[in-house]
Design brief:
20% strand, 617 residues, 21 strands, alpha+beta, 34% helix, six-stranded mixed beta sheet
C-alpha cells in the first residue's frame, strides 16, 4: 500500500508532461523521475525523551527545595564558619599584690618561636627564592644567643612547624620581628611570674606548666583570679577583611582587678630571714612565724621554712608545697596556759588574787605529772605560774573548773572545728569526746597545760588574738578582696564573736606581761610586751617521740593597748638547750621590732601597777 507520506518533486511533474507529449517515448533529455520517502517519527521514543525532561525538571526543583528548605540551616552554618573567625582567650589571670600594692604574682607576655623552613626568605629576596635554613639561623642565632649549629640541629629535615625557642621576652620577640624573615612565627602566651620568689610561695602557691593551679591562693581562689575573658567571633569578608557586625556587646571588655593581700612584704621578709637563720642554727625540721592584727584578724606575715621558688617549682620536693602551719596539728603545750587561765577566770573558778601550791609533782589517775624542771615552786600567784610555766599549778587551778564546763569552753573556742579563714588547706584540730574527757581524770589534767588535744599554729594565733582584743574570736584571713587598678583597700573594721569578758582577757594579758618583764630576750625599750614560751613534746599516732620537741613563743603587743599577736613555732630543734625561750623567742623579738616600726606603734604608756590585775565582773 502506498505510504500516505509519499510525494513527488517538481521534476517528476515536468517529466510526466514531456512523456505525455512525446507519445510515451523517452528522449535523451528527459528528466528521471525521483521519489522521496519521509520516515515516520517513533512515538515511544519521543514520549520517553519528554518524560525524561520532565523528570529532570522535577528533580531539579526537588533539589532546589531540599537545599533551600531542608538543608538551609546547615549550609548557612557552614558558610558562617568559613566567614567567622573565633578568637579564643589565652587565659590571663589577675595580679596579686600585698597590702601596700607590691607585686606578688602577675602574668607576663612570653613568646614561642616557630620556624617553617619551606617558606624561609630574607628581606629583599625574590618571594619564589627559598633560602636554605643555614642562611636564616645565622641571623636568628644573633638574637637568640644560641649557636647556629644548635638551631640547625633542631630544624633537621623538617619542613614546617619547628619549635625553635619558648619563653622569649617581649624585647627579644621584637628583635626577631625586626629581622623580617619569612617563615618565622611568634606565638604569644601568658606566663605566671612571682617577683618575690620564695617569700610568699607558702601562701600564694603556683601554676604548673599547663597553667593549672597547684597550691596556695592560686588554687583556692582560682575562680577569682581568672580574668573575665570570652571567646570572640569576628565576621570576615571574602578577602579576609574584618567586618564590624560580628562582635557582641561587651566582647572587648577586660577588667583590671587585682587580688589584694593583707600580708606586708617588708614584715614577711624580716620574718622569713629571722626564721630561716634560727631553723638552720638549731638544725630544726621546719619553722613558721605568724603575725596577726588582733582587732580584725588580718594576717600581716605568714612565713615558713623550708620554702621553694614558685618560678622553678619543678626543682623542689612536692612536700614543700603545703603550708604546715595551717595544715599540721600539734599539742601547743605551755603557750595554751594563758587561754586556760582566761576560761577559768570567766567561769569564776579562780580569782586574780588567788595562789596555788606548786608541789612539783602530782599523780592523777595513776599517771605522774611534774614540772619541766621537776622543781616545787611552793605557794605562787598566777603571774608566777606563767613565769615559771608550772604544770602542777595549772592542773590544780584548772581542777576548780568542772570537767564538763572545761570541755564546753574548748569546744566554744573551736578547737575541733575548721577555722573560718581564707587560708587554703586549713584543718580542724582534735579534741577528745565529751564522755572521754569528763570520765577520765587524766584528760582535763593534761589539757590544763596544753596536752591531750591538738590544733594548728593558726588556731593558736587566733586564740591569743582573742586575749589581745578583749575576748572576741576573729577570723584570721590573708586577703582584702579584688580591687580595680591601683586602688587599695584599707584595713577592715574590728569583727569577731565575743566569748570572754574584756576584764578577764585584760587580766591574763597583764599576767603574760610579767613573763617578759621577768624574763630575758624579749624586752623592747619603750614598749610593754606580753608573752609566753612553750616547749611541748611531739607526738605521732598518739605516742610521744623521745627527744622530739616543738618550741614556740607567742607575744601580744603593745601591752597597754594590745593590737598584734606574733607566734613563732619551730619543729624539732636539735640540742639539749632547745626551749621556747632559746629557739623561738629570738625570732619573735626581731619580728616584733620590725612590726612596731612598720605599723608606727607609739611607745607604751608607763605601767600603772594598781590597774594591772582588774577583777573580772
Amino acid at each position: 500500500m502506498p505510504s500516505p507520506f509519499r510525494s513527488r518533486s517538481s521534476g517528476d511533474v515536468g517529466g510526466q508532461a514531456d512523456a505525455d507529449k512525446g507519445g510515451g517515448r523517452r528522449g535523451k533529455g528527459t528528466a528521471t523521475r525521483r521519489v522521496v520517502e519521509i520516515q515516520p517519527i517513533p512515538t515511544g521514543r519521543m514520549l520517553a525523551v519528554y518524560l525524561l525532561l520532565c523528570a529532570a525538571l522535577v528533580g531539579l526543583a526537588g533539589r532546589l527545595a531540599w537545599l533551600q528548605v531542608v538543608q538551609a540551616p546547615a549550609l548557612q552554618a557552614r558558610a558562617r564558619a568559613i566567614q567567622t573567625q573565633a578568637i579564643t582567650p589565652i587565659g590571663k589571670r589577675r595580679t596579686i599584690v600585698d597590702r601596700m600594692g607590691r607585686l606578688v604574682a602577675l602574668d607576663e607576655e612570653r613568646f614561642t618561636l616557630w620556624a617553617h623552613p619551606r617558606y624561609f626568605n630574607l628581606p629583599g629576596d625574590d618571594p619564589q627564592n627559598i633560602r636554605p635554613p643555614a642562611d636564616v639561623v645565622r641571623e636568628l642565632s644573633k638574637v637568640l644567643a644560641r649557636p647556629p649549629g644548635d638551631l640547625l640541629q633542631t630544624i633537621g629535615s623538617r619542613r614546617s612547624g619547628v619549635k625553635l625557642a619558648t619563653g622569649l621576652d617581649p624585647e627579644t620577640a621584637h628583635r626577631v620581628r625586626e629581622l623580617g624573615i619569612s617563615g618565622i612565627d611568634l606565638e604569644a602566651y601568658p606566663q605566671r611570674v612571682y617577683p618575690q620568689g620564695q617569700l610568699f610561695a607558702n601562701v600564694v602557691g603556683f601554676l604548673n606548666l599547663e597553667r593549672v593551679a597547684q597550691a596556695g591562693l592560686e588554687q583556692s581562689r582560682d575562680r577569682d583570679l581568672r580574668r573575665q575573658e570570652v571567646t570572640m567571633s569576628m565576621r570576615r569578608g571574602a578577602d579576609g577583611t574584618p567586618l564590624p557586625d560580628g562582635l557582641q556587646a561587651g566582647a572587648l571588655y577586660g577588667d583590671d582587678l587585682r587580688l589584694q593581700l593583707t600580708l606586708d612584704a617588708r614584715l614577711q621578709q624580716v620574718a622569713q630571714q629571722a626564721l630561716g637563720k634560727q631553723v638552720k642554727q638549731w638544725r630544726a625540721k621546719q619553722g613558721a612565724a605568724l603575725v596577726m592584727n588582733a582587732r580584725n584578724g588580718e594576717i600581716l606575715a605568714l612565713a615558713s621554712t623550708p620554702s621553694y621558688d614558685p618560678n622553678k617549682f619543678w626543682s623542689y620536693n612536692p612536700a614543700l608545697f603545703r603550708e604546715w602551719s595551717v595544715q599540721d596539728l600539734y599539742e601547743p603545750g605551755s603557750t595554751f596556759k594563758p587561754i586556760n587561765l582566761a576560761l577559768a577566770l570567766q567561769e569564776k573558778a579562780i580569782r586574780p588574787g588567788d595562789k596555788v601550791n606548786d608541789v612539783g609533782q602530782l599523780s592523777i589517775g595513776g599517771w605522774p605529772i611534774f614540772n619541766h624542771d621537776r622543781r616545787a615552786n611552793g605557794l605562787i600567784d598566777f603571774p608566777t605560774v606563767l613565769q615559771v610555766s608550772s604544770n602542777v599549778a595549772m592542773v590544780k587551778a584548772m581542777s576548780q573548773v568542772k570537767r564538763d564546763r572545761f570541755w564546753h569552753w574548748l569546744r566554744a573556742f573551736g578547737i575541733d572545728e575548721m577555722p573560718d579563714t581564707d587560708l587554703p588547706g586549713a584543718v580542724a584540730g582534735q579534741l577528745k569526746s565529751r564522755s572521754e574527757f569528763t570520765s577520765a581524770p587524766i584528760e582535763p589534767a593534761v589539757a590544763a597545760f596544753g596536752q591531750g588535744f591538738s590544733l594548728t599554729p593558726l588556731k593558736l594565733l587566733q586564740l591569743h588574738g582573742m586575749l589581745a582584743n578583749g575576748g572576741r574570736l576573729v577570723s584570721p584571713h590573708i586577703t582584702r578582696g579584688l580591687r580595680s587598678g591601683d586602688a587599695l583597700a584599707s584595713a577592715t573594721a574590728p569583727t569577731g564573736v565575743q566569748l570572754l569578758d574584756p576584764a578577764v582577757t585584760r587580766t591574763v594579758v597583764n599576767w603574760m606581761e610579767t613573763v617578759v618583764e621577768n624574763g630575758k630576750g624579749m624586752k623592747i625599750p619603750g614598749y610593754r610586751i606580753a608573752g609566753k614560751t612553750g616547749t611541748a613534746q611531739k607526738a605521732r599516732n598518739g605516742v610521744y617521740i623521745p627527744g622530739a620537741r616543738i618550741c614556740s613563743f607567742v607575744a601580744i603587743l603593745p601591752g597597754d593597748d594590745p593590737g598584734y599577736v606574733v607566734l613563732v613555732v619551730i619543729d624539732e630543734p636539735q640540742g639539749g638547750n632547745a626551749y621556747g625561750s632559746t629557739v623561738a623567742l629570738p625570732v619573735a623579738r626581731q619580728i616584733a621590732e620590725a612590726l612596731l616600726v612598720i605599723e608606727k606603734v607609739p611607745p607604751s604608756q608607763p605601767v600603772v601597777r594598781g590597774a594591772r590585775t582588774a577583777t573580772p565582773s
